[in-house]
Amino acid sequence: MNKSHFDFGKQNSRLSRREAIRRALLAASGLALAEHISFRAFAAAPASAAPAKAVIQIWMWGGPPHVDIFDPKPEAGYDYCGPLKAPIETNVSGIRIGELMPLLAKQADKYSIIRSMTHNNFAHETASYLVQTGRQPGGRLVFPCVGAVVSLARGYDAGYKGLIPPYVVLTEPQGRFDEAGFLGSRYKPFATGGNPAQTPFAVEGVIAPGITDQRQKSRRELLHHLDALAQAVPDDPQIAANTQAENTAYDMILGDGAKVFDLSQEKSDLRDRYGRTKFGQSCLVARRLVEKGIPYVTINYGGWDTHKENFQTMRRQLPEMDKGMGTLLQDLSDRGLLSSTIVWWGGEFGRTPKVQWEAPWNGGRNHWGKVFSAVLAGGGFKGGQIVGASDAKGEEVKDRPVYPVDLIGSIYAQLGIPATTKLPNPEGLPTFVMPQPADEIKSAGLLKEIMSV
């Protein structure tokens, strides 16, 4: 792949404080930037009948080992399952998952496992692009990821009025793979930075490190005291618009925009249930965001590139994942949000089913794109189902291949985003939300077996 297609640089991978506030001002004032194409026609796609209103994407950055998590293979023997040889039964008869996830085992009726994801790509960069966009890497255009498309379809141009940008990443951006591609910077994610397990959660663009709320208020009061022009002509339309924009910016910093990130408002026992870890508390923040109407939230959960000592990592991270994700599903369900919120779990590929015991890997697993797993819950997707199957050793697809474009297309369908809707193409070429037959992208069809519509 041509590196220039993707290497946008760190300065573009996250929103600065200034950019976050600028977006809030745009939302309040309705100003149109000359640099942006009008996407009104796209955003007008009807969504009233769609079951899903939001997506929480748990991106398992690095590639999670499918045979240790949602596709256990104890019968394959020690060279494949290693010490994790005792998968546990779930609350759905016939479904077993990895032994380190007892909470998720109690939630299996809420999610479906896809055990036949495939794309045969073994490189982090190109596989991530493929799974996040549904497109083959290396073309003349850089396509937007799912979050950017949802931000376009359900964001500002569709009447979104929230203070927080419609596409949020907790906490670090994945860089060029969760970006807006040719849609432009307006549809890039707002990456929070910080750590929600810490107090305060220092959200970039909202919480200024070392500056208290009282100091922010004092600064604002001083600004008003020195603003002689606004005092002289308070009824001037331009000054009135600037005042409205200022009020919106401060509401983002000191008002409702900041409150959604304040986990001190949650009960301590609920925070404990999520786990007082960066991932667990990110799951809680994600729930709060969709509760406030944010249409797309990604949790970038790193640490799954287990070339070395895979099983040590699993024993450390899977219980953390189990608490966060298991509690998220239950919490969304208890609040009546799961029916309208898609939870999508997965990474760019799986790991080699056969363990690499030799040094220097010492029980590691390499990249594996021939078959891997994904999970879908809520937003009209049925729970308690298994889609597809891998073979006896988890090395190949045995039944019902599912390509990235099939999963992504199914998510768009549940959100009410038509596959044939045109995307604004900077070169004026006919470009659609989903690949068309002429694009020759491998597909086995939407996941209709688990879709309610």
Helix content class: 25-40%
* CATH fold-type name: Alkaline Phosphatase, subunit A
Report the total helices.
Answer: 14
Radius of gyration: 23 Å
Percent of sequence in beta strands = 5-15%
CATH-derived architecture = 3-Layer(aba) Sandwich
Described by strand count, sense and barrel closure, the largest sheet is: 8 strands, mixed
What is the CATH homologous superfamily assignment? Alkaline Phosphatase, subunit A
Spans of at least 5 consecutive residues with low confidence: 1-14, 25-41
Q: Span from first to last CA?
A: 37 Å
Structural class: alpha/beta
Shape: globular
Number of strands: 16
Supply database-style keywords.
16 strands; 453 residues; Alkaline Phosphatase, subunit A; 14 helices; disordered N terminus; two-stranded antiparallel sheet; 32% helix; alpha/beta; 8-stranded mixed beta sheet; 13% strand
What would a concise description of this structure say?
The protein is of the alpha/beta class and 453 residues long.
Give a description of the structure.
There is one protein chain. The two termini are 37 Å apart. This protein has 453 residues and is of the alpha/beta class. Helix content is 32%, strand content 13%. It contains 14 helices and 16 strands. Helix 1 (17-29) crosses helix 9 and helix 12 packs parallel to helix 13. The strands form 5 sheets. Strands 6-5-7-1-8-11-4-12 form an 8-stranded mixed beta sheet, sandwiched between helices. A two-stranded antiparallel sheet has the order 2-3. Strands 9-10 form a two-stranded antiparallel ribbon. It has helices at residues 17-29, 40-43, 78-81, 102-105, 124-133, 146-154, 213-226, 228-232, 237-254, 256-259, 268-274, 278-291, 310-334, 404-415, and strands at residues 54-60, 88-89, 96-97, 111-117, 167-170, 190-191, 296-301, 341-346, 350-351, 367-368, 372-377, 385-387, 389-390, 397-399, 422-423, 431-432. It has one domain: Alkaline Phosphatase, subunit A.
